[in-house]
Write a structure and sequence with these properties.
The structure is a single chain. This protein is of the alpha/beta class. Helix content is 43%, strand content 21%. It contains nine helices and ten strands. The protein has helices at 2-54, 124-127, 147-163, 178-189, 209-214, 232-247, 252-258, 266-271, 288-295; strands at 59-61, 66-67, 70-77, 82-88, 99-105, 135-141, 166-176, 196-200, 218-223, 259-264. Strands 1, 2, 3, 4, 5, 6, 7, 8, 9 and 10 form a ten-stranded mixed beta sheet that branches. Strand 5 (99-105), helix 2 and strand 6 form a beta-alpha-beta unit. Helix 3 crosses helix 4. It is globular, with a radius of gyration of 32 Å.
Length: 299
């Protein structure tokens, strides 16, 4: 009987010890898991906090495909927009070296919804390389030709000026057709960003007051009977801007150095093989007097 009682006592002791040991291990394991969870959460919090405080509110997603020296479908991501563009870097591009930069706003066929790289059918982005080989060339693929496109263009220009090693005395811009409408609004809003501008076969939508104060050199070229726009609105913009300069006390000679109106007659286009003057706008890219005027300017 005593043996049985002793055996029961030993079993009870062993059970109690076993329960205590298991519970102690469980608690230690549980504490370890809790600590690890706490560490993971802290690391996650630090990571999120780091993103919030150090991640830029603008960044570029780079494209991977190339066409005729351009990297296709790069995207500037901002809090308001996704701005698409194709980019050409000079040969042996060196980030420590300063470069001139040129922003080309294409016509209707080059807008983003028309297809990636469609803007690169216009010759300006290739011809300009003859006038400055050490120049970054950005061909925009915006979504319209109005206020939003102008804001996106400005955001893109500002990004490059702030984040790339750009020679700010050599910042050029052009706009053809619908891109010229965008250009006119860009020059209404931020003319001081640019060294000179080329306005091609378009209509002027922007206000001229800020441009007249900034005195950004502007070359305006269009056909007399442009099939899409006509030339009256371009002439009016030129006359109004010329008048603003006159009111500032500038002489005609001084004005001619920063403002040119070049209206081509119909024979100009037929001699180039174009019956349609608007379609013939691409021929201006091959005119040395135009391209040299714009791309030889420096602040």
């Amino acid at each position: 009987m005593k043996k049985i009682i002793l055996l029961i006592f030993i079993v009870v002791i062993l059970v109690i010890v076993g329960i205590f040991t298991i519970n102690n291990k469980f608690n230690k394991t549980s504490n370890k898991i809790i600590d690890n969870n706490k560490e993971t959460l802290e690391q996650g919090y630090i990571y999120d906090e780091e993103n919030e405080t150090t991640a830029p509110n603008k960044y570029i997603k780079k494209g991977s495909k190339e066409y005729r020296g351009f990297i296709l479908d790069n995207t500037l991501i901002t809090t308001n927009s996704e701005i698409h563009f194709n980019i050409h870097y000079p040969e042996n591009y060196d980030e420590t070296k300063q470069y001139a930069i040129y922003f080309a706003n294409p016509g209707w066929e080059g807008l983003y919804f028309q297809g990636v790289g469609n803007d690169l059918g216009e010759p300006y982005v290739y011809e300009v390389q003859k006038y400055n080989k050490d120049m970054i060339i950005v061909s925009t693929q915006l979504n319209d030709w109005g206020e939003q496109s102008a804001n996106d263009c400005i955001a893109l220009v500002e990004y490059f000026l702030e984040n790339y090693n750009i020679d700010k005395s050599k910042v050029y811009i052009s706009g053809l057709s619908g891109g010229g409408e965008t250009l006119s609004i860009v020059l209404e809003k931020r003319p001081e960003l640019f060294t000179s501008a080329l306005y091609i076969s378009s209509q002027w939508d922007g206000d001229l007051e800020n441009l007249s104060k900034a005195k950004t050199p502007l070359y305006m070229v269009i056909g007399e009977n442009d099939s899409y726009y006509g030339s009256a609105k371009t002439k009016n913009a030129y006359n109004n801007l010329h008048k603003l300069y006159e009111e500032q006390g500038m002489s005609n000679e001084e004005i001619d150095k920063i403002l040119v109106l070049d209206v081509k007659n119909h024979e100009y286009f037929t001699s180039k093989g174009y019956s349609d003057e608007h379609m013939g706008a691409i021929s201006f890219a091959y005119e040395e007097n135009i391209m040299e005027w714009v791309f030889s300017k420096s602040k």
